Amino acid sequence: MNLFKTLALLLFAGPLFSQTAINFEIDVTKNTDTFYVSVDLEKQLSKENNIYQFAATAPGTYQTQNIGRFISDFKAFNKKGKEIKVTYKAPNQYIISKPHKVKSINYKVAETFDTEVESYPVYMMCGSSIENDHALINTHTMLGYFEGLQSNPLKIKVTGQEGWKTGTALESKDGYYLANSFDHAVDSPILTGNLTYAETQVADTPIRIFTYSEKGKYTSEALLENMKDMLAASNKFLIKLPVENYTFLYYFLQNPDGQTGAWEHSYSSEYVLTENEPTDANMKQVTDIASHEFFHIVTPLNIHSEIIESFNFVEPTPSQHLWLYEGVTEWASNILLYRGGVVDFDAYIKNSIRQKIIINENYFDKSWSLERLAKESFNEDGAKQYGNIYYKGALVAGYLDIRLLELSDGKRGLRELMLELVDKYGKGRPISEKGFFKDLVQMTYPEIGDFIHDYIQNAEPLPNKEYLGKIGLNYSGNGKSIEIRKMVNPTDKQLMLFEAWSKNL
Ligand SMILES: [Zn+2]
Protein backbone atom coordinates (compact mmCIF):
# COMPACT_ATOMS: atom_id res chain seq x y z
CA MET A 1 0.00 0.00 0.00
CA ASN A 2 0.97 3.57 -0.45
CA LEU A 3 1.82 4.89 2.97
CA PHE A 4 2.73 8.32 1.76
CA LYS A 5 -0.66 8.90 0.21
CA THR A 6 -2.41 7.77 3.38
CA LEU A 7 -0.46 10.23 5.51
CA ALA A 8 -0.97 13.06 3.03
CA LEU A 9 -4.73 12.43 3.02
CA LEU A 10 -4.82 12.35 6.78
CA LEU A 11 -2.99 15.65 7.11
CA PHE A 12 -5.31 17.18 4.58
CA ALA A 13 -8.45 15.84 6.24
CA GLY A 14 -7.43 16.85 9.75
CA PRO A 15 -8.40 14.85 12.82
CA LEU A 16 -11.48 12.73 12.13
CA PHE A 17 -11.94 11.19 15.54
CA SER A 18 -10.79 11.98 19.03
CA GLN A 19 -8.87 8.70 19.02
CA THR A 20 -6.44 7.81 16.24
CA ALA A 21 -8.15 5.47 13.80
CA ILE A 22 -6.63 2.15 12.79
CA ASN A 23 -6.39 1.90 9.00
CA PHE A 24 -7.58 -1.19 7.17
CA GLU A 25 -7.26 -1.92 3.49
CA ILE A 26 -9.21 -4.74 1.86
CA ASP A 27 -7.99 -5.64 -1.62
CA VAL A 28 -10.41 -7.73 -3.67
CA THR A 29 -8.50 -7.48 -6.96
CA LYS A 30 -5.69 -10.00 -6.38
CA ASN A 31 -7.62 -13.25 -6.37
CA THR A 32 -11.26 -14.29 -6.83
CA ASP A 33 -11.39 -16.39 -3.65
CA THR A 34 -9.17 -14.49 -1.24
CA PHE A 35 -9.30 -11.10 0.42
CA TYR A 36 -5.94 -9.43 1.08
CA VAL A 37 -6.19 -7.37 4.24
CA SER A 38 -3.60 -4.95 5.57
CA VAL A 39 -3.68 -3.06 8.84
CA ASP A 40 -1.66 0.11 9.30
CA LEU A 41 -1.08 1.67 12.70
CA GLU A 42 -0.43 5.36 13.15
CA LYS A 43 -0.35 5.11 16.91
CA GLN A 44 1.80 2.68 18.87
CA LEU A 45 0.07 -0.28 20.49
CA SER A 46 0.61 -0.88 24.19
CA LYS A 47 1.66 -4.17 25.77
CA GLU A 48 -1.97 -4.86 26.68
CA ASN A 49 -3.01 -4.76 23.02
CA ASN A 50 -1.14 -7.99 22.27
CA ILE A 51 -4.07 -10.05 20.92
CA TYR A 52 -5.53 -9.54 17.46
CA GLN A 53 -9.05 -10.92 17.80
CA PHE A 54 -11.28 -12.28 15.05
CA ALA A 55 -15.01 -12.72 15.70
CA ALA A 56 -16.35 -15.95 17.23
CA THR A 57 -19.85 -14.76 16.28
CA ALA A 58 -21.59 -11.50 15.40
CA PRO A 59 -24.67 -9.67 16.73
CA GLY A 60 -27.95 -10.92 15.30
CA THR A 61 -26.55 -14.17 13.85
CA TYR A 62 -27.08 -16.41 16.93
CA GLN A 63 -24.53 -18.66 15.27
CA THR A 64 -20.97 -19.77 16.05
CA GLN A 65 -18.76 -18.66 13.15
CA ASN A 66 -15.11 -18.74 14.32
CA ILE A 67 -13.72 -16.45 11.64
CA GLY A 68 -10.16 -17.43 12.60
CA ARG A 69 -10.76 -20.57 10.49
CA PHE A 70 -10.66 -18.48 7.32
CA ILE A 71 -7.42 -16.56 8.05
CA SER A 72 -3.96 -17.44 6.69
CA ASP A 73 -0.47 -15.91 6.31
CA PHE A 74 -0.99 -13.61 9.27
CA LYS A 75 2.17 -11.48 9.58
CA ALA A 76 3.12 -8.47 11.71
CA PHE A 77 5.93 -6.01 10.84
CA ASN A 78 7.80 -3.21 12.57
CA LYS A 79 8.35 0.17 10.94
CA LYS A 80 11.48 -1.08 9.19
CA GLY A 81 9.49 -3.89 7.62
CA LYS A 82 11.03 -6.57 9.82
CA GLU A 83 8.73 -9.40 10.83
CA ILE A 84 7.55 -9.63 14.45
CA LYS A 85 6.69 -13.01 15.92
CA VAL A 86 3.01 -13.92 16.20
CA THR A 87 1.42 -17.12 17.49
CA TYR A 88 -1.97 -18.43 16.42
CA LYS A 89 -4.26 -19.42 19.27
CA ALA A 90 -7.23 -21.36 17.90
CA PRO A 91 -9.85 -20.59 17.02
CA ASN A 92 -9.80 -16.79 16.69
CA GLN A 93 -6.72 -15.13 18.17
CA TYR A 94 -3.23 -14.11 17.09
CA ILE A 95 -0.87 -13.33 19.96
CA ILE A 96 1.70 -10.66 19.07
CA SER A 97 5.05 -10.98 20.85
CA LYS A 98 6.04 -7.28 20.77
CA PRO A 99 2.86 -5.28 20.16
CA HIS A 100 4.50 -1.90 20.86
CA LYS A 101 6.79 -2.47 17.85
CA VAL A 102 4.04 -3.31 15.35
CA LYS A 103 3.54 -0.88 12.47
CA SER A 104 1.58 -3.03 10.06
CA ILE A 105 -0.12 -6.40 9.71
CA ASN A 106 -1.02 -8.35 6.58
CA TYR A 107 -3.12 -11.46 6.21
CA LYS A 108 -5.30 -13.33 3.75
CA VAL A 109 -8.94 -14.25 4.23
CA ALA A 110 -10.63 -17.10 2.39
CA GLU A 111 -14.13 -16.16 1.26
CA THR A 112 -16.80 -18.04 3.21
CA PHE A 113 -18.89 -18.83 0.08
CA ASP A 114 -16.31 -21.06 -1.61
CA THR A 115 -14.52 -22.44 1.45
CA GLU A 116 -15.50 -25.88 2.75
CA VAL A 117 -15.80 -26.20 6.53
CA GLU A 118 -16.47 -29.34 8.58
CA SER A 119 -18.90 -27.73 11.01
CA TYR A 120 -20.67 -24.44 11.66
CA PRO A 121 -21.05 -23.21 8.06
CA VAL A 122 -21.45 -19.43 8.03
CA TYR A 123 -24.88 -18.29 6.77
CA MET A 124 -24.39 -16.76 3.32
CA MET A 125 -25.88 -13.39 4.28
CA CYS A 126 -23.28 -13.18 7.06
CA GLY A 127 -20.44 -14.35 4.82
CA SER A 128 -18.07 -13.06 2.17
CA SER A 129 -17.49 -13.58 -1.54
CA ILE A 130 -15.37 -12.26 -4.39
CA GLU A 131 -16.06 -12.84 -8.06
CA ASN A 132 -14.95 -10.98 -11.18
CA ASP A 133 -17.86 -8.56 -11.08
CA HIS A 134 -18.53 -8.02 -7.37
CA ALA A 135 -17.48 -8.60 -3.77
CA LEU A 136 -19.59 -9.05 -0.64
CA ILE A 137 -17.86 -7.85 2.50
CA ASN A 138 -19.40 -8.60 5.86
CA THR A 139 -16.69 -6.82 7.80
CA HIS A 140 -16.56 -9.25 10.75
CA THR A 141 -15.50 -12.00 8.32
CA MET A 142 -12.21 -10.22 7.62
CA LEU A 143 -11.44 -7.44 10.10
CA GLY A 144 -10.34 -7.94 13.69
CA TYR A 145 -9.50 -5.74 16.66
CA PHE A 146 -6.61 -5.49 19.10
CA GLU A 147 -7.46 -6.48 22.66
CA GLY A 148 -8.58 -3.37 24.54
CA LEU A 149 -9.29 -1.47 21.31
CA GLN A 150 -12.75 -2.82 20.37
CA SER A 151 -14.13 0.71 20.66
CA ASN A 152 -11.31 2.37 18.71
CA PRO A 153 -12.32 3.99 15.38
CA LEU A 154 -11.46 2.36 12.04
CA LYS A 155 -10.84 3.68 8.55
CA ILE A 156 -11.56 1.08 5.89
CA LYS A 157 -10.42 1.28 2.29
CA VAL A 158 -11.82 -1.21 -0.21
CA THR A 159 -9.77 -1.67 -3.35
CA GLY A 160 -12.09 -3.01 -6.02
CA GLN A 161 -12.24 -2.90 -9.79
CA GLU A 162 -12.53 0.33 -11.72
CA GLY A 163 -16.13 1.42 -12.27
CA TRP A 164 -17.66 -0.63 -9.45
CA LYS A 165 -20.47 0.88 -7.38
CA THR A 166 -20.32 0.43 -3.61
CA GLY A 167 -23.24 0.23 -1.19
CA THR A 168 -22.87 0.54 2.59
CA ALA A 169 -24.39 2.53 5.43
CA LEU A 170 -20.91 3.73 6.46
CA GLU A 171 -19.99 7.31 5.70
CA SER A 172 -17.00 7.77 3.47
CA LYS A 173 -14.36 10.44 3.35
CA ASP A 174 -11.29 10.71 1.14
CA GLY A 175 -11.61 7.15 -0.10
CA TYR A 176 -12.07 5.60 3.36
CA TYR A 177 -15.20 4.28 5.05
CA LEU A 178 -15.35 5.50 8.63
CA ALA A 179 -16.50 3.37 11.55
CA ASN A 180 -16.36 4.68 15.09
CA SER A 181 -15.71 1.24 16.60
CA PHE A 182 -15.22 -2.41 15.64
CA ASP A 183 -18.90 -2.98 16.54
CA HIS A 184 -19.93 -0.19 14.17
CA ALA A 185 -17.86 -1.74 11.35
CA VAL A 186 -19.45 -5.16 11.98
CA ASP A 187 -22.84 -3.42 11.88
CA SER A 188 -22.11 -2.15 8.37
CA PRO A 189 -21.71 -4.62 5.50
CA ILE A 190 -20.23 -3.43 2.20
CA LEU A 191 -21.39 -4.62 -1.23
CA THR A 192 -19.32 -3.57 -4.22
CA GLY A 193 -19.38 -4.45 -7.92
CA ASN A 194 -21.67 -4.13 -10.91
CA LEU A 195 -24.67 -2.99 -8.91
CA THR A 196 -27.92 -1.24 -9.74
CA TYR A 197 -29.06 1.61 -7.52
CA ALA A 198 -32.35 3.25 -6.56
CA GLU A 199 -33.45 5.59 -3.80
CA THR A 200 -36.58 6.99 -2.23
CA GLN A 201 -37.71 8.82 0.86
CA VAL A 202 -40.10 7.55 3.57
CA ALA A 203 -41.29 10.54 5.58
CA ASP A 204 -37.92 12.26 6.16
CA THR A 205 -35.80 9.15 5.91
CA PRO A 206 -33.72 8.52 2.76
CA ILE A 207 -33.84 4.86 1.70
CA ARG A 208 -31.11 3.54 -0.61
CA ILE A 209 -31.05 0.23 -2.46
CA PHE A 210 -28.04 -1.48 -4.04
CA THR A 211 -28.46 -4.76 -5.89
CA TYR A 212 -26.12 -7.34 -7.34
CA SER A 213 -28.00 -9.84 -9.51
CA GLU A 214 -25.96 -12.55 -11.21
CA LYS A 215 -28.04 -12.68 -14.40
CA GLY A 216 -29.51 -9.22 -13.99
CA LYS A 217 -33.04 -10.45 -13.22
CA TYR A 218 -33.51 -8.20 -10.20
CA THR A 219 -32.87 -4.46 -10.27
CA SER A 220 -32.94 -1.93 -7.46
CA GLU A 221 -35.69 0.01 -9.27
CA ALA A 222 -38.02 -3.01 -9.45
CA LEU A 223 -37.30 -4.02 -5.84
CA LEU A 224 -38.00 -0.51 -4.64
CA GLU A 225 -41.29 -0.38 -6.53
CA ASN A 226 -42.35 -3.58 -4.73
CA MET A 227 -41.24 -2.33 -1.32
CA LYS A 228 -42.95 1.06 -1.32
CA ASP A 229 -46.20 -0.11 0.31
CA MET A 230 -44.27 -2.10 2.91
CA LEU A 231 -42.15 0.93 3.80
CA ALA A 232 -45.25 3.12 4.13
CA ALA A 233 -46.94 0.46 6.32
CA SER A 234 -43.82 0.24 8.53
CA ASN A 235 -43.83 3.99 8.93
CA LYS A 236 -47.50 3.90 10.01
CA PHE A 237 -46.92 1.06 12.46
CA LEU A 238 -43.95 2.82 14.06
CA ILE A 239 -45.40 6.37 13.76
CA LYS A 240 -41.88 7.58 13.03
CA LEU A 241 -38.93 5.57 11.69
CA PRO A 242 -36.20 5.48 14.34
CA VAL A 243 -33.31 5.90 11.84
CA GLU A 244 -32.06 8.88 9.84
CA ASN A 245 -31.20 6.81 6.75
CA TYR A 246 -31.36 3.18 5.65
CA THR A 247 -29.63 1.04 3.02
CA PHE A 248 -30.84 -2.28 1.55
CA LEU A 249 -28.08 -4.45 0.08
CA TYR A 250 -29.43 -7.22 -2.18
CA TYR A 251 -27.41 -10.07 -3.61
CA PHE A 252 -29.06 -12.59 -5.97
CA LEU A 253 -27.26 -15.79 -6.97
CA GLN A 254 -28.29 -18.46 -9.49
CA ASN A 255 -27.13 -21.43 -7.40
CA PRO A 256 -26.40 -20.45 -3.81
CA ASP A 257 -24.40 -23.14 -2.04
CA GLY A 258 -25.43 -22.65 1.59
CA GLN A 259 -28.06 -21.10 3.84
CA THR A 260 -29.53 -18.00 2.17
CA GLY A 261 -31.48 -15.31 4.01
CA ALA A 262 -30.98 -11.83 5.37
CA TRP A 263 -29.14 -10.13 8.22
CA GLU A 264 -30.18 -6.95 9.93
CA HIS A 265 -28.07 -3.98 10.97
CA SER A 266 -28.77 -0.59 12.54
CA TYR A 267 -28.81 1.36 9.26
CA SER A 268 -28.82 -1.39 6.66
CA SER A 269 -29.63 -5.01 5.92
CA GLU A 270 -27.95 -7.58 3.71
CA TYR A 271 -29.87 -10.17 1.63
CA VAL A 272 -28.42 -13.22 -0.10
CA LEU A 273 -31.19 -14.89 -2.08
CA THR A 274 -31.68 -17.29 -4.97
CA GLU A 275 -32.03 -15.52 -8.30
CA ASN A 276 -35.26 -17.12 -9.49
CA GLU A 277 -37.76 -15.46 -11.85
CA PRO A 278 -38.92 -12.09 -10.49
CA THR A 279 -42.61 -13.06 -10.53
CA ASP A 280 -45.13 -11.21 -8.34
CA ALA A 281 -45.02 -14.06 -5.81
CA ASN A 282 -41.21 -14.06 -5.63
CA MET A 283 -41.06 -10.27 -5.40
CA LYS A 284 -43.59 -10.42 -2.57
CA GLN A 285 -41.40 -12.91 -0.75
CA VAL A 286 -38.40 -10.59 -1.01
CA THR A 287 -40.52 -7.74 0.37
CA ASP A 288 -41.71 -9.90 3.29
CA ILE A 289 -38.09 -10.62 4.24
CA ALA A 290 -37.24 -6.93 3.86
CA SER A 291 -40.15 -6.03 6.16
CA HIS A 292 -38.72 -8.36 8.82
CA GLU A 293 -35.17 -6.99 8.54
CA PHE A 294 -36.38 -3.40 8.47
CA PHE A 295 -38.37 -3.90 11.69
CA HIS A 296 -35.17 -5.02 13.41
CA ILE A 297 -34.24 -1.35 13.74
CA VAL A 298 -36.67 -1.52 16.70
CA THR A 299 -35.33 -4.74 18.21
CA PRO A 300 -32.63 -5.90 18.77
CA LEU A 301 -30.91 -2.88 17.23
CA ASN A 302 -32.54 -0.42 19.64
CA ILE A 303 -34.27 -2.50 22.30
CA HIS A 304 -31.79 -5.10 23.57
CA SER A 305 -30.22 -6.30 26.80
CA GLU A 306 -26.75 -5.46 28.06
CA ILE A 307 -25.48 -8.73 26.53
CA ILE A 308 -26.11 -7.31 23.05
CA GLU A 309 -25.17 -3.73 24.02
CA SER A 310 -21.55 -4.58 24.88
CA PHE A 311 -21.09 -7.45 22.51
CA ASN A 312 -18.70 -10.29 23.27
CA PHE A 313 -16.87 -11.25 20.05
CA VAL A 314 -14.54 -13.63 21.93
CA GLU A 315 -17.10 -16.00 23.44
CA PRO A 316 -20.66 -16.40 22.05
CA THR A 317 -22.96 -15.26 24.87
CA PRO A 318 -26.69 -15.91 24.41
CA SER A 319 -29.43 -13.53 25.52
CA GLN A 320 -32.69 -15.15 26.72
CA HIS A 321 -34.65 -12.39 24.97
CA LEU A 322 -34.39 -13.92 21.49
CA TRP A 323 -38.22 -14.24 21.67
CA LEU A 324 -38.28 -10.42 21.52
CA TYR A 325 -35.49 -9.87 18.98
CA GLU A 326 -36.69 -12.44 16.43
CA GLY A 327 -40.18 -13.62 17.52
CA VAL A 328 -41.72 -10.18 18.04
CA THR A 329 -39.93 -8.86 14.93
CA GLU A 330 -41.37 -11.64 12.75
CA TRP A 331 -44.87 -11.04 14.15
CA ALA A 332 -44.64 -7.26 13.75
CA SER A 333 -43.23 -7.40 10.21
CA ASN A 334 -46.23 -9.56 9.18
CA ILE A 335 -49.06 -7.84 11.03
CA LEU A 336 -47.94 -4.35 10.01
CA LEU A 337 -48.58 -5.41 6.39
CA TYR A 338 -52.10 -6.59 7.33
CA ARG A 339 -52.88 -3.50 9.38
CA GLY A 340 -51.41 -1.28 6.66
CA GLY A 341 -53.63 -2.86 3.99
CA VAL A 342 -50.71 -4.41 2.07
CA VAL A 343 -51.98 -7.98 2.64
CA ASP A 344 -55.63 -8.93 3.23
CA PHE A 345 -57.16 -10.93 6.09
CA ASP A 346 -57.14 -14.27 4.25
CA ALA A 347 -53.50 -13.96 3.20
CA TYR A 348 -52.46 -12.93 6.71
CA ILE A 349 -54.26 -15.87 8.34
CA LYS A 350 -52.91 -18.32 5.77
CA ASN A 351 -49.25 -17.26 5.72
CA SER A 352 -48.66 -15.70 9.11
CA ILE A 353 -50.76 -17.89 11.42
CA ARG A 354 -51.89 -21.13 9.79
CA GLN A 355 -48.58 -21.90 8.08
CA LYS A 356 -46.60 -21.04 11.21
CA ILE A 357 -48.77 -23.35 13.34
CA ILE A 358 -48.27 -26.21 10.87
CA ILE A 359 -44.49 -25.73 10.77
CA ASN A 360 -44.19 -25.43 14.56
CA GLU A 361 -46.35 -28.53 15.07
CA ASN A 362 -44.70 -30.73 12.44
CA TYR A 363 -41.14 -29.71 11.69
CA PHE A 364 -39.50 -28.80 14.99
CA ASP A 365 -39.15 -30.29 18.46
CA LYS A 366 -42.06 -28.68 20.32
CA SER A 367 -40.54 -29.49 23.70
CA TRP A 368 -38.00 -26.67 23.21
CA SER A 369 -39.11 -23.44 24.88
CA LEU A 370 -38.29 -20.09 23.28
CA GLU A 371 -35.86 -19.52 26.13
CA ARG A 372 -34.06 -22.78 25.36
CA LEU A 373 -33.87 -21.84 21.66
CA ALA A 374 -32.15 -18.64 22.78
CA LYS A 375 -29.73 -20.27 25.19
CA GLU A 376 -28.60 -23.09 22.90
CA SER A 377 -28.54 -21.52 19.44
CA PHE A 378 -24.72 -21.44 19.46
CA ASN A 379 -24.34 -25.23 19.80
CA GLU A 380 -25.05 -27.74 17.04
CA ASP A 381 -28.32 -29.16 18.47
CA GLY A 382 -29.58 -25.67 19.16
CA ALA A 383 -28.68 -24.53 15.64
CA LYS A 384 -31.08 -27.22 14.30
CA GLN A 385 -34.00 -25.93 16.41
CA TYR A 386 -33.16 -22.24 16.05
CA GLY A 387 -35.31 -21.78 12.93
CA ASN A 388 -38.48 -22.28 14.98
CA ILE A 389 -38.02 -18.81 16.47
CA TYR A 390 -39.58 -17.52 13.20
CA TYR A 391 -42.64 -19.77 13.65
CA LYS A 392 -43.24 -20.52 17.31
CA GLY A 393 -41.64 -17.21 18.32
CA ALA A 394 -43.92 -15.23 16.00
CA LEU A 395 -47.02 -17.15 17.16
CA VAL A 396 -46.20 -16.51 20.83
CA ALA A 397 -45.73 -12.79 20.07
CA GLY A 398 -49.11 -12.80 18.29
CA TYR A 399 -50.81 -14.44 21.28
CA LEU A 400 -49.13 -11.98 23.63
CA ASP A 401 -50.68 -9.23 21.49
CA ILE A 402 -54.14 -10.83 21.80
CA ARG A 403 -53.74 -11.29 25.57
CA LEU A 404 -52.71 -7.64 26.00
CA LEU A 405 -55.68 -6.49 23.91
CA GLU A 406 -58.01 -8.65 25.99
CA LEU A 407 -56.67 -7.39 29.32
CA SER A 408 -56.82 -3.74 28.20
CA ASP A 409 -60.31 -3.97 26.65
CA GLY A 410 -58.88 -3.47 23.19
CA LYS A 411 -56.87 -0.36 24.05
CA ARG A 412 -53.24 -1.45 24.18
CA GLY A 413 -51.74 -4.37 22.31
CA LEU A 414 -48.16 -5.48 21.71
CA ARG A 415 -47.57 -2.72 19.12
CA GLU A 416 -48.47 -0.05 21.65
CA LEU A 417 -46.29 -1.73 24.28
CA MET A 418 -43.38 -1.86 21.80
CA LEU A 419 -43.76 1.87 21.12
CA GLU A 420 -43.56 2.50 24.88
CA LEU A 421 -40.41 0.35 25.03
CA VAL A 422 -38.89 2.38 22.18
CA ASP A 423 -39.37 5.51 24.31
CA LYS A 424 -38.05 3.93 27.47
CA TYR A 425 -35.07 1.99 26.13
CA GLY A 426 -32.63 2.25 23.23
CA LYS A 427 -28.94 2.33 22.42
CA GLY A 428 -27.11 3.19 25.63
CA ARG A 429 -30.23 2.30 27.69
CA PRO A 430 -30.44 -1.50 27.45
CA ILE A 431 -33.23 -3.59 28.95
CA SER A 432 -32.09 -5.76 31.86
CA GLU A 433 -31.20 -9.31 30.77
CA LYS A 434 -32.37 -10.67 34.15
CA GLY A 435 -35.04 -8.16 35.16
CA PHE A 436 -36.87 -7.49 31.88
CA PHE A 437 -39.69 -10.00 32.40
CA LYS A 438 -40.45 -8.40 35.77
CA ASP A 439 -40.33 -4.95 34.17
CA LEU A 440 -42.76 -6.10 31.47
CA VAL A 441 -45.21 -7.41 34.07
CA GLN A 442 -44.93 -4.11 35.93
CA MET A 443 -45.70 -2.19 32.73
CA THR A 444 -48.69 -4.45 31.99
CA TYR A 445 -50.64 -6.99 34.10
CA PRO A 446 -49.82 -9.85 36.51
CA GLU A 447 -51.41 -12.24 33.96
CA ILE A 448 -48.57 -11.41 31.55
CA GLY A 449 -46.21 -13.01 34.07
CA ASP A 450 -48.12 -16.30 33.67
CA PHE A 451 -48.03 -15.95 29.89
CA ILE A 452 -44.25 -15.45 29.91
CA HIS A 453 -43.82 -18.41 32.27
CA ASP A 454 -45.92 -20.77 30.14
CA TYR A 455 -44.99 -19.84 26.57
CA ILE A 456 -41.56 -18.18 26.69
CA GLN A 457 -39.73 -19.74 29.64
CA ASN A 458 -41.49 -23.09 29.27
CA ALA A 459 -42.90 -25.04 26.37
CA GLU A 460 -46.59 -25.41 27.22
CA PRO A 461 -48.53 -26.43 24.09
CA LEU A 462 -49.52 -23.27 22.21
CA PRO A 463 -53.15 -22.24 22.99
CA ASN A 464 -54.08 -21.82 19.32
CA LYS A 465 -57.80 -22.50 19.68
CA GLU A 466 -58.29 -20.54 22.90
CA TYR A 467 -56.41 -17.42 21.79
CA LEU A 468 -57.74 -17.22 18.23
CA GLY A 469 -61.19 -17.69 19.80
CA LYS A 470 -60.68 -14.51 21.87
CA ILE A 471 -60.77 -12.47 18.63
CA GLY A 472 -63.66 -14.45 17.13
CA LEU A 473 -61.70 -16.89 14.99
CA ASN A 474 -62.59 -20.55 14.89
CA TYR A 475 -59.65 -22.97 14.87
CA SER A 476 -60.12 -26.59 13.83
CA GLY A 477 -58.20 -29.57 12.54
CA ASN A 478 -54.79 -30.95 13.41
CA GLY A 479 -51.47 -32.10 11.93
CA LYS A 480 -51.03 -30.51 8.54
CA SER A 481 -54.70 -29.79 7.88
CA ILE A 482 -55.79 -26.84 9.93
CA GLU A 483 -58.59 -24.38 9.30
CA ILE A 484 -59.00 -20.90 10.74
CA ARG A 485 -62.24 -19.04 9.95
CA LYS A 486 -64.23 -16.13 11.29
CA MET A 487 -66.96 -17.33 13.70
CA VAL A 488 -70.50 -17.07 12.37
CA ASN A 489 -71.94 -15.57 15.57
CA PRO A 490 -69.16 -13.80 17.46
CA THR A 491 -69.97 -12.03 20.74
CA ASP A 492 -69.70 -8.25 21.06
CA LYS A 493 -66.46 -8.66 22.97
CA GLN A 494 -64.98 -10.91 20.27
CA LEU A 495 -65.99 -8.38 17.62
CA MET A 496 -64.49 -5.51 19.60
CA LEU A 497 -61.20 -7.37 20.07
CA PHE A 498 -61.10 -8.37 16.39
CA GLU A 499 -61.49 -4.70 15.44
CA ALA A 500 -58.70 -3.66 17.82
CA TRP A 501 -56.48 -6.51 16.57
CA SER A 502 -56.98 -5.42 12.95
CA LYS A 503 -55.60 -1.90 13.26
CA ASN A 504 -52.82 0.25 14.66
CA LEU A 505 -54.52 1.67 17.77
ZN1 LIG B 1 -34.50 -11.42 12.17
Automatic annotation (TrEMBL):
<dbReference type="Pfam" id="PF17899">
    <property type="entry name" value="Peptidase_M61_N"/>
</dbReference>
<dbReference type="InterPro" id="IPR007963">
    <property type="entry name" value="Peptidase_M61_catalytic"/>
</dbReference>
<protein>
    <submittedName>
        <fullName>Peptidase</fullName>
    </submittedName>
</protein>
<dbReference type="InterPro" id="IPR027268">
    <property type="entry name" value="Peptidase_M4/M1_CTD_sf"/>
</dbReference>
<feature type="domain" description="Peptidase M61 N-terminal">
    <location>
        <begin position="26"/>
        <end position="194"/>
    </location>
</feature>
<feature type="signal peptide">
    <location>
        <begin position="1"/>
        <end position="20"/>
    </location>
</feature>
<keyword id="KW-0732">Signal</keyword>
<dbReference type="InterPro" id="IPR040756">
    <property type="entry name" value="Peptidase_M61_N"/>
</dbReference>
<dbReference type="Pfam" id="PF05299">
    <property type="entry name" value="Peptidase_M61"/>
</dbReference>
<feature type="domain" description="Peptidase M61 catalytic">
    <location>
        <begin position="287"/>
        <end position="395"/>
    </location>
</feature>
